[in-house]
Amino acid sequence: MRLSAYFMPTLKETPAEAQIVSHRLMLRAGMIRQASAGIYSWLPLGFRVLKRIEQIVREEQDRAGAQELLMPTIQSADLWRQSGRYDAYGPEMLRITDRHEREMLYGPTNEELITEIFKASVKSYRDLPRMLYHIQWKFRDEVRPRFGVMRGREFLMKDNYSFDLDYDGAKRAYNKMFVSYLRTFARMGLKAIPMEAETGPIGGNLSHEFIILADTGESEVFCHRDLVEFDVLATEIDYDADLAPLVDRWTSLYARTDDKHDKAAFEREVPADMRVHRRGIEVGHIFYFGTKYSDPLGALVTTPNGDQVAVHMGSYGIGVSRLVGAVIEASHDDNGIVWPEPVAPFEVGLINLKTADGACSKACEGAYGALREAGVEVLYDDRDVRAGEKFADMDLIGLPWQLVIGPRGLDKGVVELKRRRDGAREEISLESALARLTG
Ligand code: 5CA
Question: I need a labelling partner for 41 at 20 to 30 A (CA). Which of 18, 99, 169, 174 fits?
Answer without folding.
Answer: 99
